[in-house]
Design brief:
This protein is an alpha/beta fold and 270 residues long. Helix 3 links the parallel strand 3 and strand 4. The radius of gyration is 17 Å and the shape is globular. It contains nine helices and ten strands. Helix 3 packs across helix 4 and helix 4 crosses helix 5.
Amino acid sequence: MRDRSSFAISSYALIDLSLREAMDQLTRDGWTSIEIMCEEGHTELLEWSRAQFTELKRIGSEKGITWSIHAPINGCNLAADAGSGRDMTIETMKRCLEIASFLDSTHVVMHAGEVNDRLDVAERARGVENVSQAVQLLVPELIHGQTKLTLENVPPYPKVLGWNVSDLTTVCRNINSSHVGVVYDVGHAHLIRPGYALEALEEVLPYLLALHLSDNYGEADDHLAVGEGTIPFAPILNLLKESDFTGSWVVETKELACAHLSVDRIIRQL
């Protein structure tokens, strides 16, 4: 039986606050697992000093908090061809992994990036190969700690790679490392087409290390509370239960109240 302590919260719920303010509020609110999303103001994490990280680690140790990190999305492209853009992305990802290792984080979330045409088979294949090569360069950063590198499925936006989970499972097979897997965003999968959220989950199960949980109506990535949209959570949760999934359950909603509601509803269904 799951309880609230087995769920994580994404700092996305408080993205309008400074990172320190968000961390203070989430710890006061009793969350014992926090995923720091390095977007908007929370990208400041990458510029923090050693003293700031040491203080965050101390707070985590005192309060029993488990950390994970969502690497930046904007400006990062693992799928890019070799060049300065990909080099900068790899350096940013190494910085995220360095921070994650210091905090003893469970995982770091990364997006695959962009290609010229998300529907072109050849473009996707080249993007998958580029991501595989980039991730292979990052694996040595992982082998001495517990942190995993996870690739997240994304919404079907123009040019994105990774909206089809097959691209991510191909990367995982190419790397063939226990340190690399998938974080499965149920809401993103629901945007592809009705029924895909369950189908895609079945496909990624062998590589599944973490979940991102929210709801939507199949039209936009609304980050609603679970149960507020049209995602068929009952069969999804049943599959996770039957599969004995033991990875991270990260609630990624637009508001803190939505996260509480989501956890309560998921626990009742489990």
